[in-house]
Each structure stands twice: as C-alpha cells, then as structure tokens.
Amino acid sequence: MSESEVRQQYDQIAASYDQRWSKYVTDTLSFLKTWAEIPPQANVLDVACGTGKFEQMVLAENPRQKVTGVDISENMLAIAQQNCSVYPNASFHSASVLALPFSDCHFDVIVSDSAFHYFDQPQAALIEIKRVLNLDGKVVILDWCKDYFLCRICDILLKIFDPAHRQCYTQKELHNLLTDAGFKIHHARKVRFGVVWGLMVVTAIVERSEMKLEERLP
Q: The Methyltransferase domain covers which part of the protein (predicted)?
C-alpha cells in the first residue's frame, strides 16, 4: 500500500464526502475541537484536513485563528479552499505527512482526525510531525481504536477490501508509537460515537529529554 491509493480514493469521493459522512464528520470534529483546547493565538496545523471542516469550525469561533491544512488529495483540498474562502487566515497545502512543507518548530498545535490508520509509515509520520511542532506545543490525534470489537472487525475487512487502509491500532499501540517518536502522553481517553465508531483520542507533548537535546543543538 502507498499514499497513491489513499490519494486516488479520496479524489474520487471528494465531491460526495461531506454529504456521505456528515454526521460522523460533525460529531468527531466537534469533539476534537473541544478536546484540543486550542489557544486563540495558536498557530494550528491539521494533518489530513480533508474538506476543511475542522478549519471551518475553528474559524467560525475565532476568525483570527491561524489554521493550516495539509492533505494528499487535491480534490479534497479544492473543496476545503471553497469551504474556507471567507477566512484569510486559513491556508491549505498538498503534502504528505512524511514531508511537511514547513520549517522546524512552526506550529503550536497539530491535530489529526480519523487519518492515522491510513499512514503507511506511522513512526516516520510522528517524527515529521514532531519536527514542525513547537517544543512547548502539543499534538492531538483522534482515530479508530482497535480495542473496540467492531473496530477490530472493520480493520480485518478493510485490510481485505480497501487498498487505502493501512491498519487500526489499540490505544496502547498508538501510545507506544508516540513515545518511541519522542512524545510524552499528556491526556488520553477512549470515546464511542454511536454503535459502530469506537475511537481514541490522545494529546501528546514533546518529551522533556527531547527538548533538552534540541536546546543543545547549534
């Protein structure tokens, strides 16, 4: 599997995505926005931003918030641009999570919703996310959780029938990936949306030992 399959799939469904997944998107992104507790002055990055619905929610509350979205689907990004056209502080870029087009320590808050199970190289993705995160910033990930039975079933079926799907993780597996990438788990929980959707959310910060190393570098 590679990012090309994800890109192709979402380019194809972009036009109908917001309507098809309206309730799921609204429920999960509303939860993510509340959980993330984004300071009004924070510079925010949304990884795998899709059609920009998270950006819309944040900017509707604080039009001065600086929010950037990245995605690998050009068609999803085109809709995101339209959805946020009235907000000059919103910007969108076509980019892989493995090669974010930003300088080191650029963002205060980085979020990702329902995308981590698509990442082909999750460890490398987290390391790249850490690179563009301020040393005192935070990353917030909301994704499907394999600790739930129905999510385990979906994971098995998607691996067979969906070439874009990589894999779901248990909460422990996700936390281990984060700590291995140099993050410290700050706050986490599991949450269910309806009967099917069992998700997990985690807020992580850069491990202090990593911060000290960065501070010593020239």
A: 41-182
